[in-house]
Amino acid sequence: MFVRDLDDVTGTEDDVETPNWRSKRLVLAKHGAGFSVHETTLQANTVNDFWYANHVEAVFITHGEGELTDQETGEIYQLGPGTVYLLDGHEHHQLRPTTEMRAVCVFSPPLTGREVHDEDGVYPLITDR
C-alpha cells in the first residue's frame, strides 16, 4: 500500500512548475502502478498546447473553467468541475483556462517525473523508473 498527499509533494522534485501550470506528481513510474497520477493547476488566461504522442491521458477537472480545443478537428469543449476528458488518440490539444483550473491527470504509461515538454508539447517516453 502507498499513501501520499499533496503536502508530501509540495516543494519536492515531484512538484514541477512553469509560468502556465504546476504539476504535483503523486504517483509515478517508480511506484510500480502502471500509470501515474498528477494534480495540475493551470493559470487563468493562459494558452497551453500539448500533444501526448507517447501517452494516453485522462483528465478530471475539479475546480475552475476553460476550453479544450482538439487541434486536429477544431472542435471546442467547455470544461468545468466534474468534466472528464480522455486523450486516447494522442490528439494535439490546447487548453485555455478562463479561471485558475485544477485537474487530476492520469497518464499511461506512467511518467517518471523527469519528463519535460518539447517544442511540440510532447513528453518523451522514458521507460525506466
Description of the molecule:
The protein is 3% helix and 43% strand. The protein has one helix at 6-9; strands spanning 15-17, 21-27, 36-42, 48-51, 56-63, 66-70, 76-79, 84-87, 92-97, 101-108. A six-stranded antiparallel beta sheet has the order 1-2-3-10-5-8, with no helix packed on it. A four-stranded antiparallel beta sheet has the order 4-9-6-7, with no helix packed on it. Strand 1 (15-17) and strand 2 form a beta hairpin. The protein is globular, with a radius of gyration of 14 Å. The model has no long low-confidence stretch (mean pLDDT 91).
Looking across the biggest beta sheet, what order are the strands in?
A: 1-2-3-10-5-8
Radius of gyration: 14 Å
Mean pLDDT: 91
H/E element sequence:
HEEEEEEEEEE
**Main sheet makeup:** 6 strands, antiparallel
Poorly predicted regions are: none
Structural class: mainly beta
Helix content: under 10%
Number of distinct helices: 1
The coarse silhouette is globular
Separation of the first and last Cα atoms? 18 Å
What proportion of the residues form beta strands (DSSP E)?
Answer: 35-45%
Strand count: 10
